[in-house]
Design goal:
The protein is an alpha+beta fold and 238 residues long. It has three helices and twelve strands, in the order H-H-E-E-E-E-E-E-E-E-E-E-H-E-E.
């Protein structure tokens, strides 16, 4: 019987070496594939993040979410500072709404110590008119679209035949709720004269969406008082 011994250089050694080499190559391939997959995922995430950053900005480097929080939530353009957003002379024939059961009327105040432009909104709070007076100007959609600070001003007159009104609400409203002004200057006019009243507001997108108006509500107090209101203007005042 002849015995065949496989040497280190024989077929068995070569076969084992090939198997070990194949296993090593396989392991290297697995590690390489894992590394490439992990790197590819990071690259993909990086590109996705960069794409989202571009999509979230409006071209000037301002993130849209931040801009929405501070103003222009609906993409409205910011008005120029000092731009007039609404204006009304408060003369007869203007779109001022006057409640039918409330005694606010239009008249020429010149016989009472001062003159308005044509006529003014007037309230005579006297025993012959035992009622309050409500008037409001709707601000049409599209007039004020950008959240921010706005200033309303109007001319308020004190007739020389009666004391100035003592109880009233006056200013901008959202829906039917009066807005709280962040600053105001409303001096009582001397008898037979006028003063310019100003009120500043920080208006939010929610308040814009609810609908804006400017209202005057004179409350009857059982005494003889009166006043006039003229030439409303609302400007953007950041």
């Amino acid at each position: 019987m002849q015995l065949n011994f496989w040497t280190l250089n024989g077929p068995r050694a070569k076969g084992a070496a090939l198997v070990e080499h194949g296993i090593l190559v396989g392991l290297i391939a697995v590690v390489a594939i894992g590394a490439v997959s992990q790197l590819g995922g990071k690259v993909s995430e990086t590109f996705m993040f960069a794409t989202e950053e571009v999509a979230m900005t409006d071209g000037d480097g301002v993130v849209q979410g931040e801009k929405d929080a501070n103003g222009g939530a609906d993409g409205a353009a910011e008005p120029a500072p000092g731009a007039t957003m609404e204006q009304d002379s408060f003369d007869e024939g203007t779109p001022l709404n006057v409640a039918s059961n409330r005694r606010l009327v239009f008249l020429d105040p010149s016989p009472y110590g001062f003159s308005g432009s044509n006529s003014s909104v007037h309230h005579a709070n006297t025993a012959s008119r035992e009622t309050s007076g409500l008037a409001w100007l709707e601000i049409p959609d599209g007039k004020i679209t950008y959240p921010g600070r706005y200033e309303a001003s109007l001319i308020v007159g004190n007739f020389n035949n009666k004391p100035f009104i003592s109880q009233y609400e006056l200013g901008m409203r959202s829906g039917e709720n009066y807005l709280t002004s962040v600053a105001s200057n409303m001096p009582v006019p001397a008898s037979g004269s006028t003063e310019v009243w100003t009120m500043s507001y920080e208006i939010t997108q929610e308040q814009i969406d609810a609908g804006l108006s400017f209202a005057i509500d004179v409350i009857y107090d059982g005494q003889n008082h009166n006043a006039s209101f003229d030439d409303l203007e609302i400007v953007y005042a950041p």
